[in-house]
Amino acid sequence: MRRTLFGARSRVYAFLAALDRVRVSPRYRGLRWSSAVILVLFALELATGILLSLYYYPEPDAAYDTLRFLQGTVSGGWLMRSVHAWAGELLLLAILVHLGFVYFRRAYAHPREYEWVV
């Protein structure tokens, strides 16, 4: 960490320096679980997205009408749309948690630096 970024006497520098020294035990298996959660949420997004695409037309004239049809007439359409929306939000959160695990466990370092770049 560069001392010139915030200054040596800054509280921000002290906080960042302390955060940089934090080590998470290698026995912690959160990285594997977060990967599995991301995979399940992505599969859910894919499945509900395909089902939604059967009824939804994204053209400006038909978008609102198809959305009303999907939520009001199609059996379980409201549930399919809600699951798709929530899975998208949770997928973003799970990816951020996974990136946090990778950073604090230093899983981006040798020999996995190429995986991190990809």
Q: How would you describe this protein?
A:
By secondary structure, the protein is mostly helical. Helix content is 65%, strand content 0%. It contains five helices and no strands. The protein has helices at residues 11-20, 30-53, 63-72, 77-104, 113-117. The relative contact order is 0.11. The mean pLDDT is 83.
**Overall number of strands:** 0
What percentage of residues falls in helices of 4 or more residues? 55-70%
Number of helices: 5
Give the termini separation. 25 Å
Q: Residue-averaged pLDDT, rounded?
A: 83
Radius of gyration using CA atoms only: 22 Å
Largest sheet: none
Order of helices and strands: HHHHH
What percentage of amino acids are in beta strands? under 5%
Which descriptor suits the 3D outline? elongated
Ranges where pLDDT stays below 50 over 5 or more residues in a row are none
Helix/sheet category: mainly alpha
Keywords:
about 120 residues, mainly alpha
Secondary structure elements and pairings:
Layout: H1 11-20, H2 30-53, H3 63-72, H4 77-104, H5 113-117
Helix pairs in contact: 2-4
Brief summary of the model shown:
This protein is 65% helix and 0% strand.
